[in-house]
Every structure is written in C-alpha cells, then in structure tokens.
Design brief:
The chain is an all-alpha fold. It contains 10 helices and 2 strands; from the N terminus they run H-H-E-E-H-H-H-H-H-H-H-H. Helices cover 63% and strands 2% of the residues.
C-alpha cells in the first residue's frame, strides 16, 4: 500500500506530513518509556529492548518483500503495524514502521518521498493505533493465556489493514489528483484489503505466537502473562526465634536468596535475524509478481494517471534489485540482504539513542534524594 508521488495533491500531502511528523514526535517520547520499561521488572529489560526493536523493524522490512496472492492478478504484503505494536509497544511500533518506510523510499524507490507523510500516517500510524486498540480490548475480555494473545493478535492485524484502506480513501477524497468517484475507490480498496488483512493476520499471529511460546517476557503485549516472583515464608519460620539473645543489631543477618539468573536475548535475536535474512535474501524471489492491492485498484480505477517518477528511481537498489547484476535471483536477494542490514542498523541506532537519553534524564532525578540526604547529614 505504498502511495507513490502524484496520487495525492501537495496541500493534503503537506498536511499528512505534518500529522506524520507530530505522530513521530509523540512516538519518540512514548518509545523512551517503552524502551525503558518493557519486560518483567520494569526497567530491567531496557538494555535488551532497543536491539529487539531494531530487529522488529528489519523483520518487517524483510516480510514486506514477500507478496502473497489474494485474488486474480492481485497480491498483498505485510504492513506490520500490528506486529510491531504487539511485540515492542505502540509508540515504538510507529517508529519501527516509519523507519521501514523511510528506508524503502530512499533506497528502493518504493513509496513516494513527497508522499512519505501520507504513507506514515496510513501504514504506520493508522495500523498501529487500530491494531493495538483492538488487541488491548480483546486481551481484557479473553482468558489470560498465551492462546488469547495469539487470537487477539490475529483479530487486531485483520482489522488494521482495511482501516489503513479507509484512511487512504479519506486522504484521496481530500486530495486525490484524478476525478474518480470516491465510492468506487472505497469499495475497491476496502474489499481487496480485507483479503490482504487475512494474510496479515496469519503472519502476525504466527510470529507473535512463536515469540510468546519461548520468551513471553520480551513481548510488550504479553507483559501481563509474566507473574511477579512471590516470596513465601516457610511455616517453620514462624516458630523460629527472631534473633539470638547475644546477637547485636550490627551483626549481619541471614544472606538473601540469590536472584534468578537473567536469560539472554541472543538466541531469539539471532533466530529473528536469520528469519529476516532468509525472507529477504531467499524467499523474496518466489514472492508474487502481481501488483499489490493499491496498485491494482489504481490501475483499474484510473488513480495512477498522474503518478510521478520517483525521485530515487535511479537508485542502484531501485525495485529491490541490485543494478548491474544480471542474475535476477542474486540481484534481488542481495538487495534484500542490504535492506535488512540497513534497516537493522538505522532502527537499532534510533532506539539505542532513545534509551540512553531516557536513562540520562532519569539519572539526575535518582541522584537528587541521595544528595539531599548527604547535605542533611
């Protein structure tokens, strides 16, 4: 559903850009809290969340290359808003999809640069907000279990895609550059994207279900499944003496119980990276070559008569293929690997900076009580 340049006029594109910029700014602030507090135990998972968020962005980029057939001559691909919101949180999710859209537009000439605000508003903001709202609602009413997380993920992803189609239709109604009855656009867009939503729901549910099965503590949407550690006192302790008669207050008491060992995120990170590289570098060659939902509707309804050439059409990676490499499988696979690496690097860099800024802002507040106590002493 990448909107190219020329579909939406300049004033509406600028307004959508302003909305997208505001959404990204709000998400930057919200992502700092999510990156500092995701996982059991509040901030204990902060140092491992940023790399995982970068991996989610890279994985979404890779899976978006896997177009799947949904109807005669039409294909669809993952949008990713639901998947990102459930795995790393809604604010971080908006940033994940925004990073993907930026990399696709700049490096691969996919989605117009003047339409970047439209695409972020549509594919990042709308899908994430709708999906996470539906997900949280269902999690509250369904039984508290891993299966409920998977079911809620399926429904949230399913509804997020036609919601994005509705958002595009609304933007086209305000600033479409061709004279096409909006009712026809709405019917065609929502109809085909309901079918695409089924594919999105399957991919999202399978991915979330797989991660929840092995590491529910790393899934933002499943944080309620992790029960806090309960310390139970033995019945014998009630009859034991509180302290020996000759024990003074200065003498040390019993040693505390050792903390539970912290589980490494490296196996999950490596598995996710391997899956992303496999999708982008190998499976993408077998993806459907049919136009996606928006391209098909645009061609059938005449929305694409004023499409402008992409500003980076001469990029060496345009159309997800490395130029000057004759073998299409090698050219496409190498482009996919480069895209995964670039998205992972940019995404991880953004989230690491956000996490460090949050930690730096929290340090003075944490040191203030200690300084006040020292002055009073």
């Amino acid at each position: 559903m990448h909107v190219p340049d020329g579909f939406i006029n300049a004033p509406v594109s600028a307004a959508a850009g302003a909305v997208a910029a505001a959404a990204v700014a709000v998400s930057l602030r919200g992502a700092r809290r999510e990156l500092a507090g995701t996982g059991t135990g509040g901030g204990t998972g902060a140092d491992r969340t940023a790399p995982l968020a970068g991996l989610v962005a890279a994985f979404i980029f890779a899976v978006q290359m896997l177009n799947f057939p949904v109807a005669a001559g039409t294909s669809g691909h993952l949008l990713g808003g639901a998947l990102a919101a459930i795995l790393v949180g809604p604010y971080t999710g908006v940033l994940c999809v925004s990073v993907v859209l930026l990399m696709q537009g700049v490096l691969f000439a996919d989605g117009g640069l003047t339409a970047l605000g439209v695409n972020i508003s549509d594919m990042a903001l709308t899908t994430t907000v709708v999906a996470y709202g539906v997900f949280r609602l269902l999690v509250k009413v369904l039984p508290r279990s891993r299966r409920s997380i998977t079911v809620a993920s399926f429904a949230a992803a399913l509804l997020s895609v036609p919601a994005a189609a509705v958002c595009f239709t609304a933007l086209y109604a305000l600033g479409g550059t061709t004279d096409v009855p909006i009712g026809k656009v709405f019917t065609a867009m929502v109809g085909v994207h309901v079918l695409i939503g089924i594919g999105e729901a399957v991919i999202t549910a399978l991915t979330v279900g797989a991660v929840v099965a092995v590491r529910p503590d790393l899934v933002h949407g499943a944080r309620d499944l992790a029960r806090p550690l309960e310390l139970r006192t033995s019945p014998l302790a009630a009859t034991a003496p509180a302290a020996a008669p000759d024990q003074t207050a200065d003498e040390p008491g019993p040693a505390p119980a050792p903390a539970a060992p912290r589980r490494s995120t490296r196996p999950l990170w490596l598995a996710g990276l391997a899956a992303a590289l496999l999708c982008a570098g190998g499976l993408s060659y077998y993806a459907s070559s049919s136009p996606d939902g928006l391209e098909k509707v645009a061609h059938d309804k005449g929305l694409d008569t004023r499409t402008e050439q992409h500003a980076t059409a001469d990029s060496p990676l345009a159309d997800y293929s490395v130029k000057d490499i004759a073998d299409p499988r090698l050219a496409g696979g190498l482009a996919g690997v480069i895209g995964v690496a670039a998205t992972l690097a940019v995404g991880t860099g953004v989230f690491v900076v956000l996490r460090r800024r949050k930690a730096a802002a929290a340090s003075p507040a944490a040191d203030a009580p200690a300084s006040a106590s020292a002055e009073q002493g």
